Amino acid sequence: MFKKLLIFTLFFFLFEQNTFANNFIEKTIDWYKFRVIKYDTQSLDYIFKIWINQDYAATDLRELMEANNWVSAVNWVFFCPDSYAECGWKNFTKNERYVEWTKIWPEASTWNRVVFAVDKEDKAFLFQTDKINRLDEDKIHYGFANFPLLLQDWVSKFQEYVDLWLVDNKMKAKIQRNFICSDRYSRNIFTWYVSAIELEKLPDLLLKFWCVNALNLDAGWSSALIYNARYLIWPARDIMDWVIIERKWLDTAKIRENAVKIKDYLNKKIIDKTIEEKVLYLDNMMSWLSKIRTNIYEKNSHDIYENWVVVGYEINVKDLKKVQTTYLINYLNKLLSELKTQSIADDKKRVEEENNRKNIEELLF
After folding, report:
1. Which phi-psi region, left, alpha or beta, contains residue 38 (left: φ > 0; alpha: ψ -120 to 50)?
2. What CA–CA distance (Å, rounded) separates 45 from 122?
3. Cross-strand bridge partners of residue 115
4. Which of 171, 172, 173, 351 falls between 20 and 30 A from 365, CA-CA?
5. Which residues pair with residue 179 across a beta bridge?
6. The dihedral of CA 273, 275, 281, 282: what is its sign?
7. 250, 245, 251, 340: which is closest to 289 by C-alpha?
8. Taking the C-alpha atoms of 216, 202, 62 and 319 in order, what is their torsion angle to the nearest 10 degrees?
9. What is the pLDDT of residues 220-247, one digit of tens each?
10. Would you say 147 and 114 are in contact if contact means Cβ atoms under 8 Å apart?
11. So where are the chain's domains?
């Protein structure tokens, strides 16, 4: 196996080294599990952005990731999907989006929506017309609006939305909740989800997760999370807009090109094997790759303690070469999984054609 993977290993060392931080946190608070991407606003190595579909077309998140130089992405916007008749079979949102100082939705007021924004220096702040930082809209470099606002300066704002009759049954339900928040001094931005919880309970829980300002994100079928080119949560539909992280000095297109070459190389090695041998080979390969990824994560993570008890862990891979390796593994595993599926389908088709041929021969003779 190692000889077969020689070309795979060589590809790891075709890139120059740099360092950066891109953290993944899994932590349990009061029996609720957080799975979160942490963005350090003072990092020089990666970029926080908002990506939008200005034509309101929903798109597969992975396809967009592969078309751009992204490595991590999450959905955020409330939108009316084209699968709903009440939406006129079209995707739609009224939520404000800001991309490089350009405001996409030209409403005069954000009304009850609140914008989670970052300025040119990546400092996170909230904006709401005539209510929160009302003079700072021109400072928004990237941002988006949603509701309800969960925390503002450590204070829960959820009840205000209840009083305005803006909390519907979906918000009252106990489901996975997605959020974005910033900590004290806006040093870090955290985004993704908490396991099933009523929305009214989320603000108090976020306070225990270092959040100072926090905004609710879309959940349900639109929930999607990609970390290092690997889906951790698959959406049940195409989605419109994303919070994304780009990594400097990382040529994701080149990595994917190398992954395709490796997949083609491996496919030639198993082309004459039986379907059982192909499946076993590909399963073993994907398992081996996953162990390499796990080893990288384990060596670049630390436990999170509270009251001398481990409550979670944080992954912080600083070496760029290891990140490139992780990205390659995740993308190659995707290709090999697709190859396995296609091989099984091809074998099934071959068996059916063979059976049909035999049936015809029996009819003829």
Report:
1. beta
2. 13
3. 127, 145
4. 351
5. 192, 216
6. positive
7. 340
8. 110
9. 888 999 998 899 988 888 888 889 998 8
10. yes
11. 21-247, 252-364
